[in-house]
Amino acid sequence: MPITRDEVAHLARLSRLALGDDELDHFAAQLDVIISAVARVQEVAAEDIPATSHALPLTNVFRPDEVRPCLTADQALAGAPAAEGDRFRVPRILEEES
């Protein structure tokens, strides 16, 4: 059952869209194609096929977590343009509040 021009006009009114006569005809044809495609997909879906989120099974591709030694403060700050104590020194971006 094709979607009618009146149904498109009703949807446009509900959506608060101002559509001209040529747009109503154009959208009616497009919506009919979309609804037909959805109907075909529903015909293909079978009850004996389990629902899946992916076509292929997913596996974890990440390496396992390992504890490794980290940089010392001196090593981390070695390439910094400015340091103060054991911290990076950055330009002030906010004014202090009184």
UniProtKB/TrEMBL annotation:
<keyword id="KW-0436">Ligase</keyword>
<protein>
    <recommendedName>
        <fullName>Aspartyl/glutamyl-tRNA(Asn/Gln) amidotransferase subunit C</fullName>
        <ecNumber>6.3.5.-</ecNumber>
    </recommendedName>
</protein>
<comment type="similarity">
    <text>Belongs to the GatC family.</text>
</comment>
<keyword id="KW-0648">Protein biosynthesis</keyword>
<dbReference type="InterPro" id="IPR003837">
    <property type="entry name" value="GatC"/>
</dbReference>
<keyword id="KW-0067">ATP-binding</keyword>
<keyword id="KW-0547">Nucleotide-binding</keyword>
<comment type="function">
    <text>Allows the formation of correctly charged Asn-tRNA(Asn) or Gln-tRNA(Gln) through the transamidation of misacylated Asp-tRNA(Asn) or Glu-tRNA(Gln) in organisms which lack either or both of asparaginyl-tRNA or glutaminyl-tRNA synthetases. The reaction takes place in the presence of glutamine and ATP through an activated phospho-Asp-tRNA(Asn) or phospho-Glu-tRNA(Gln).</text>
</comment>
<comment type="subunit">
    <text>Heterotrimer of A, B and C subunits.</text>
</comment>
<dbReference type="Pfam" id="PF02686">
    <property type="entry name" value="GatC"/>
</dbReference>
<dbReference type="InterPro" id="IPR036113">
    <property type="entry name" value="Asp/Glu-ADT_sf_sub_c"/>
</dbReference>
